[in-house]
Design brief:
By secondary structure, the chain is of the alpha+beta class. Helices cover about 40% and strands about 30% of the residues. A 4-stranded antiparallel sheet has the order 3-4-5-6. A two-stranded antiparallel ribbon has the order 1-2.
Length: about 140
C-alpha cells in the first residue's frame, strides 16, 4: 500500500514543460479537472434551482399576484420599494411603488410576454430580481 501511495505522490509531483515554456505539475492538472467537475455540478444545481423557482413563480402567478419589498436610504431619507408582479391575459406586468418621506411614485411596465422578459426588465429597471417576488403574507394559511 505504501508503494502505491509513493507512486501516486511521485506522479503528482512530475513536472512538464509546455511549448510556451511554462512548467506545470500533474497535481495542477488533477486540481483543474476536479475544479471543472465541481463547477459543472454547481452550475447544474444552480440551473435546477432557477428552474424550480421559475415553476413555483408560474404556479403562484396563475392564482395570485406576487410582491416584493425593499428598503434603502437615499439622500438621508428612508425609501421603500414595493413591487407587484401579476399575470394578465398571457402576459406579465410589473408595478413598482417608490415611497419616501417626500414623495410617492408608481411605475408600471408594459405587458411582458415571458418570465425571461420580466427578469430582464427587473434587473435593468428596478431594484428587484425575479426571485424577490413571493406570495403576500395574507395569502398564506394561518397556523393555529
Amino acid at each position: 500500500m505504501d508503494e502505491l501511495f509513493s507512486h501516486i505522490a511521485q506522479w503528482l509531483g512530475e513536472s512538464h514543460t509546455s511549448w510556451r515554456g511554462r512548467t506545470s505539475y500533474n497535481v495542477e492538472i488533477v486540481l483543474a479537472i476536479a475544479m471543472s467537475i465541481g463547477g459543472a455540478i454547481i452550475a447544474k444545481d444552480y440551473a435546477a434551482q432557477r428552474k424550480a423557482n421559475r415553476e413555483r413563480t408560474l404556479l403562484a402567478l396563475s392564482s395570485i399576484e406576487l410582491v416584493a419589498t425593499s428598503f434603502s436610504g437615499q439622500d438621508g431619507q428612508r425609501v421603500k420599494y414595493r413591487g407587484t408582479l401579476r399575470q394578465e391575459n398571457e402576459a406579465y406586468t410589473v408595478s413598482i411603488l417608490r415611497q419616501s418621506d417626500l414623495e410617492r411614485t408608481e411605475t408600471h411596465s408594459q405587458p411582458l410576454p415571458s418570465l425571461e422578459a420580466v427578469e430582464a426588465y427587473l434587473t435593468s429597471q428596478t431594484v428587484f430580481v425575479l426571485a424577490d417576488f413571493k406570495e403576500p403574507p395574507a395569502s398564506h394559511p394561518q397556523a393555529g
